[in-house]
Amino acid sequence: MKKWIPAGVVCVMALWIFGELRPPLDKDFGFTQFARLPLTAGGRIVPMDSLARNSLLQIREKQTLNTEPWKGWSEKPRILSATEWLANVMMHPSVADAWPAFRVDNPDLISLLKLPEKDLAKQSDGKHFSWNQIQPALEAFDRENERVQTVESARRTAYENAVAKLHRRLTLYVRLKNTVQPADAPDWPAGLAAYEAFIPEGIAAVKAQQAGQPFDPAVFRRFAGYVESFQFMSRLESPLILPPAGSAEWRRVGDVLLAAPRDGEIDRSLRDYATMAGALAANHPSEFNAALQEYTASLVPAQARAMNKARWEVFFNRMEPFYHAMVLYILAGLLAVFSWFNLSETLRRSAVGLIGLAFVIHTAGLIFRMVLEGRPPVTNLYSSAIFIGWGAVLLGMILEKFYKNGIGCVASAGIGFLTLIIAHHLALEGDTMEMMRAVLDTNFWLATHVVAVTVGYASTFVAGFLALVYILRGVFTKTLDADTGKSLARMIYGIVCFATLFSFVGTVLGGIWADQSWGRFWGWDPKENGALIIVLWNALILHLRWGGFIRERGLVLCAIGGNIVTSWSWFGVNMLGIGLHSYGFTDAAFQWLVLFVVSQLALIALGLLPARLWRSFRPTPDPAAV
Amino acid sequence: MPIKKIVELFSSLRLMVVLLAFAIVLVFIGTIAQADEGLYGAQAHYFKRWLVVGASFFGHKIPLLLPGGYLLGTLLLVNLVCAHICRFQLTPKKIGIQLAHAGIIVLLVGQLSTDLLSRELQMHLAEGETRDFADSATSYELIFLSGNQVTAIPEKMLKEGGELKSDSLPFTLRVKSAWKNSDLTFRAPMLQNGAPLTTNGLGRNFNFKKVEDVRKMDQLNVPTVVLELVADAGSLGTWVASGWAGEASLVEAVRNNYAPMGAELAQKIAGLLIAPQTIVAGGKSFILTLRPARVYNPFSITLLQATHTVYPGTDIPKDFRSRVLLNNPQAGERREVEISMNHPLRYGGYTYYQYQMDAGASAMAGARTPTSVLQVVRNPGWLTPYIGCAMVGLGLAIQFLYHLVGFVTKRKPA
Fold it and tell me: Model ipTM?
């Protein structure tokens, strides 16, 4: 019976995840199909679904919209998918403007904008606000924002950061509102038809004006008004939703409208979107679905590839592999820790099974990303977190295979969980599959230097995590016997060797890349120095060990230092905001980094306590002497 | 035996450990200090130094005495070489470690040679322009041009309060001010201006002032000097020579800076900036400029086309690319080459990298001729990192696999 428990646990979790893959059923409007429409945003082909999720993540820090955030979960608030939200923002803004989609946390900013405090009766949770609530205070906000933009980003206060952040969010929102139609168009299909009918008259007026002949100033002004409103749409740099016609590039609605007088006709895809917008605003699902159907059909065969890519990306988004893996890692970690106390092999094996399942999902997600991007695994800070987690889990599982004592499991689960949490927060910055800037646009170096350095990070963290296990188990529990201690130290030593190899090779390859692209092998740039410190630190540990300057406990304490050094290189140097490499800046992360470093120093101090204060390793009274 | 003792000390593991620990501290402090002192400042203060006295740490000055990068590097090199000589063994157990350490020696020697021998230059080219010289990115020279005769005085000889004399110049130079980095403002005729720096040449139309040295990697210092020229007959007046007037891309930057005041005025300001400053003395006339130090080559490079592409619908740069014509009459070589990010051109002992660019939509919008800046590096030791890295990587891999195989076989039940 006991034999089957681990397999059972894994099956249950696998079924749960599998169940979530099914697309939701549309009640009336075909948002599921709308989600799969391809477009170009941030320089790459994405499905509507990704644009919606990434935008909502930036604006609300969640991938779904709770339209009634003041309600508790038991009261069943209305939750909308990101795509439904986006469709309304783009095509029916009068509804979307009333949804509390903007997250504002900073109290000073809340009072500047005169936003309501938390008051359930007045339907406010004090954190999420709608465009309509923010809009009246925009003038005051703009003044503040203008001032903040002149402050160097590294020197901004928390409030100023909040202002800058909200400015980015509002800009994004306005951009989205002007993607399909001018945001203020009351009835877009009618407005579009009116514009189209007016074009010949307008052109005649402009030509007459230019030739110095008499013209109707009212007609001229109206035409200029159109041009101005479409230029505004175009300047906002909203996503390119219209498929290429003739040229190779996708097109922006504003640009196509501006070009209409010259081209003499209005694009059919633009018309299809207008029909969808009209139907959504008028609440006619069947009309919306028919237009959507027609537009989708028109994309074949020219855009079949883009559609295919979009469809797979929607599948990937819905799979949420890293979220699911994260949940499994927590469960597995808990099981493995418990297994130390009651020495249950069943618990340990269940943990191994769950980590195995999580690892499969983690790997699938990683590969999915690589295929969608056509890139090696690490392209930005976000993907470095995913990959460090992946590498650490793999290393931990290898250790578990050899030692079978649950320690590898805990290391896998712990680092897997932590790195995926970090990745989750990094994803708030926007599209995680953004295009690579010119200098980074080389798969060869991304696949060699970046991967090697990241494996170096991952293994240094594994060594550090094992060291934490050693200290915590040793000081607080009686479960660390001399044998376990020795095997932990051996694991740490082996992993430090491994980390030295990878961080060294990775760092030098980075130098060679720099030599290839900037003409200098080593420039003492902060990111290079961060990587160098990891190499030096690992080399120091090894030399200390070889020289006999440190033994088991010294090795353990040094390995915790590796955590500090690596977190510094991974995040700390980006916060200095200088150098060629600073492409991964995050502001709130600084406090977390400080907290992490302090916690590691505290653990080193804990490890320095004299052995008699440890609960493990106490000399047990000799039974024979009693 | 004291010699034996010394050798023992220099080949000891203890020294290695101490050096590694100091290196970690130095690199850490030298990185933090970049926020206050800038990249180049920190390099000079911590890494390219034998001894470091005092440091800045998150905006605070801290008293500190540390071995600098040169000292640590040299000691590390001595330590490694000594240890290598003393303990060399060709056994399977040691071969990996030996190879790795030999690789480190190669890297250290390579870096030392780079530091001593490498030279970084730049080449600013507008489309259609041909150049057979490269400019120094960091040092300037004061030029007196008289007909075909060029008198060049390196910037570092211009010390505030100093006096210089050259056989080819009929006057003495008294350096009144020498600013490593400077800024300029146009003395608009209709505005209230303070007293001019000088009433000759540039000083009539521009105010120059000293500013702090640059901190970022992609910025450069632009020096300005104020000189009094004294001939036997008496003073020829005070003159200003500024880097701002000596380099086309800087003149362009000044013009763009004043573009909001109207294209015509901006053009006029740029014209005033490059108007030649002529000094007449001893029956000859001299044109005074301060320009980046030049290194001439026996071949020339012509920029045929500069392209800057972005990802559709964004301003994220996708590619920077310069198509150039390489012309070496001595070797009878004349061919077209493309230089792009990550694809430099190696020729004549120099390597040409795509560095900066003003081309594509942005240049078109401003009606500017596309320009491209190539970073030109001469580094005889450029191959050493490749060799060193391969040696260390291989060595560590051998060592690691040796232990791993041992570990796995030991754990297998016999």
Answer: 0.85
